[in-house]
Amino acid sequence: AAIAEMTIRFEAPVCIGDTVHAVLEVAEVDPQPAPRRGQVRFRIQVLDQAGRTVSTGEWLALMQRRVRKN
Fold this sequence. Notes:
Layout: E1 2-10, E2 20-34, E3 37-48, E4 53-64
Antiparallel strand pairs: 1-4, 2-3, 3-4
């Protein structure tokens, strides 16, 4: 995979001792850019232990296609 574009937004500080977790979403799949690869757009939201959003982002990855076996 290769990253074609990426955006990250830091919305709140994270301190030492904080617990964070990420929620990742496959937002879009475009299989058409080339015969051997497609594009996948991901969105991420990072939350702290209180459930506050501390960071958001999005990136577009170029992914090699799986060969389907019939």
